[in-house]
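#lab-general

N.A. 3:47 PM
ok so I finally got the sequence cleaned up, no stray characters, all 289 residues accounted for. can someone with queue access submit it? mine expired

B.Y. 3:52 PM
send it over

N.A. 3:53 PM
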Amino acid sequence: MSLILSVEGSLSLGVPRGKPHTMGDQADSYNVSAKYYDAAYAAKKDLVDIPFYVDLAQRLGGPVLEIACGTGRVLLNIGRAGVEIVGVDQSKAMLNVFETQLQREPSEVRSRVSVYEGDMRRFRLGTKFPLVIIPFRPMQHMLTLKDQIAALTTASAHLQKDGRLAFDVFFPLFDRIPTGIREEMPELEWTIDSQQATTVRRYFRKESFDKVGQTFSATFIYRTYQGGTLVREETEPLKMSYYTYPHLRALFLLTGLEPVEEYGSFDKTPLDNSSTEMIFVLKKAQTIS
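B.Y. 4:20 PM
back already:
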């Protein structure tokens, strides 16, 4: 059993199951994706964010707070690297997968890890951390300015005086956002049972976009094949926001944060016109008395 941080900030056993919250328009809508999440992203060869966040955690030390930790894809790697870490997520489906994953870990890893169920816009643990991370674009599930400010305010509220906040979002390709509406695009494929020749393929279908609100809606389609025959199809909605660089800088000003590092890739290349990501390491802004 893992150590779990309760609402009051004390340590207790078990995952606290408080009142469920919603994230943007997605009311805990990860029941399908949670089942396939780890296998899907293990098959995504260009997803190379884990070394960046593990290195940051080892450099700054623990305990680390990961907001929107999901199934523990990043969190468990930080725990395996010897750093104490607390995770928070609002999806019961994701946390159930996380708990199963955690029980497979050695006792020394389990002892470094705790998890709490909560909404990234409003939870408060009553504890401050040298490092807070929001890996793999949870900020893009904050669909309104109000929610974006609330999420960054939550992160800032958990920073120690000289602590750091790190997160990433994708660099939007504005020429592609309005294209391909209602077209199914194959994304990922992985095997779940080699003996039964069972594979899963994930498709992405963009449904609409909102140029003013800077969001798009889409559907993930999971198709399971056995011996080449389709045996199951499952779908799940997706809605995401996207950011410009000045938009993010304005959010930092509104929430009392300032960048100390910014990159255009997880290889720490400069943030410029060739960038595919916008990655920030921030601190609390200095106030002038």
